[in-house]
Amino acid sequence: MKILALYPYIHLSSAALLIDGKIVAASPEERFDRQKMSTAFPNKSAAWCLKSQGVKWEDLDMIVVPWNPMRNVNHASRRWVSEMNWRGQLLSHVPIQVMRAIDGPMENEMEIRWGKTRIVYMNHHECHAANAFFLSPFEEADVLTIDGHGEDETCFFGYGKGNDLHQNSNVIYPHSVGLFYGTFTDFLGFTPDVDEWKVMALSSFSKGPNEYDAKIRSLINLTDKGFELDLTYFDYFNFDRRPHFYHQKLVDLIGQPRKRDEPFEQKHFEIAGAMQRVFVETVTHLMQVAKKQGSGSGNIVISGGAAMNSCFNGLIDDLGIYDNSSISSCPDDSGVAVGAALLAWHRYGKQPRKVQEQEHNYWGPSYSNEEMKKTLERFKIKFEEPKDLYKEIAQEIADGKLVGWIQGAMEFGHRALGNRSILADPRSEKTKNVVNAAVKYRESFRPFAPAVLAEKAEDIFVLRPGRKVRFMERVVPIRKEWTAKLGAVNHVDDTGRVQTVEREINQPFYDLINEFGKITGVPVLLNTSYNLNGEPICMTPEHAIRTFYSCGLDILVLGNCVVRK
């Protein structure tokens, strides 16, 4: 069974192809059209997904979309479809008018088909839930999804078992944890739905409770079924008519918002810290609600945009609510197309589920070493092919060089995991400034991630025994004896957004870190995505070369080819 999932017109349009139960290709559109957070219809990424597997559009059994417009249009303004200006509008006008005439319950799915082509529109939060559960190692698990909003939901409480997902309850828009966080992202001078992780980084500079904790906590009422916001402080549900997500009442409560270009003051760190603490309290409560309603498995999977909050994720193992937890590489809307494809397969494929834990997200385009060489030769760029690539590049990094590292298939999602990475020595705090000044051009308060050999991770980071953190999805404490040794990846609160690297999953990246460890005694590298600030992660050798000569990187490694400035 061949299923193509498409998620267009959101802040990270993407496409994913599933064949017989396995994701075989996936990419956000931004990597192709080179527009950061592209909202364009994913024509290019979809075309690549199909071409990479020798599949044609007419070969597809199903096209799925992780959003069901039936849940929106049934109650849309009647003016929207009162007149028809073009016969093609019959495609939307007829079903909308029929929905209104029937005025029955809204379904979780709707379908349109012609000939062999079948397009199924699926419930957004079910697709988030599918991303979480079907990429997890669990045969059975409770499911919690939290985001800004789907069609009309902002939280999904349920459980998964075998091929099936069951929903127990939900929270309905406009009560939203995701948009609560987005409101403070806006309040602190950033862009909602884009810059939430900047606010998360800011929050670490707040050492403990302050004058804003009680004020911000008063905005959320935790209930037996979830939570309710005091909506009088928010304007995000009027976003098409209001300039900001926050109401004047929030300004009256906590003071003037920060303008985008204003310098940061201590109050901004304190507001971010208080808001993050309230977020943690709220999501912890939602986990407890999920447990009360759940299946009793002792496992939980979490998805939705809120599951990108790696600071909270790092606390889950210590909360004691669940025995085990899992978060995929792409729990936010960047991966909801992946969830839609998996949901369709398990719902319609009629095959028993084979539980397979997600080990990687290298679902994007890849280039052979020969293709890399031909690209360099075409551009008349001098390069070397060292006999011992890993040892040589590890020594260069130990000597302070900044390295662009392009290997294998591109990662899917926001984070580079060793195939489209910029790598540097993690030992000196000065390295952060060097990387920012030479390459990333981003805010100085944002931390860089440590990539560590999996078998050494528990010696260096405070991790639950056996815990794998393959996708930088959890921020955890650095052990005291290592904080001074990891100045470039040690955040202000002595934590790191760790990535554990296994040789069976990424041999080149593992071997490089291993060689660096032999040279320095530190089996860790600073790993950040291969892109300039404001640009998408590089995908092709051409992208990598252009970026290399546009910034302060010292060395570019394309497969086995090494380019030096």
Describe this structure in words.
There is one protein chain. This protein folds into 3 domains: 2-68 and 107-125, 2-Layer Sandwich (Nucleotidyltransferase, domain 5), CATH 3.30.420; 137-327, Nucleotidyltransferase, domain 5 (2-Layer Sandwich); 369-564, Carbamoyltransferase, C-terminal domain (DHBP synthase, Alpha-Beta Complex), CATH 3.90.870. With 565 residues, it is α/β, with parallel strands linked by helices. The strands form 4 sheets. The chain has an 8-stranded mixed β-sheet, with helices on both faces. It has a 6-stranded mixed β-sheet with strand order 3-2-1-4-6-5, sandwiched between helices. Strand 1 and strand 2 (14-19) form a beta hairpin. The model has no long low-confidence stretch (mean pLDDT 95).
Task: Write a brief structural summary.
Helix 5 crosses helix 13, helix 7 packs across helix 10 and helix 15 packs across helix 19. The protein is of the alpha/beta class.
Features:
about 575 residues; alpha/beta; Nucleotidyltransferase, domain 5; DHBP synthase; 3 domains; eight-stranded mixed sheet; 20 helices; about 20% strand
Topology (SSEs and partners):
Blueprint: E1 2-7, E2 14-19, E3 22-28, H1 30-33, H2 43-52, E4 62-65, H3 70-73, H4 90-102, E5 110-114, E6 117-121, H5 124-134, E7 140-146, E8 153-161, E9 164-172, H6 177-187, H7 196-203, H8 211-217, E10 220-223, E11 226-229, H9 248-254, H10 266-293, E12 299-303, H11 310-313, H12 316-319, E13 324-326, H13 336-348, H14 369-378, H15 389-398, E14 403-406, E15 420-424, H16 430-440, E16 449-453, H17 457-460, E17 474-477, H18 480-483, E18 495-501, H19 507-520, E19 524-529, H20 541-548, E20 555-558, E21 561-564
Parallel strand pairs: 1-4, 4-6, 7-12, 12-13, 14-20, 16-18
Antiparallel strand pairs: 1-2, 2-3, 5-6, 7-8, 8-9, 10-11, 14-15, 15-19, 16-19, 17-18, 20-21
Helix pairs in contact: 5-13, 7-10, 8-10, 15-19
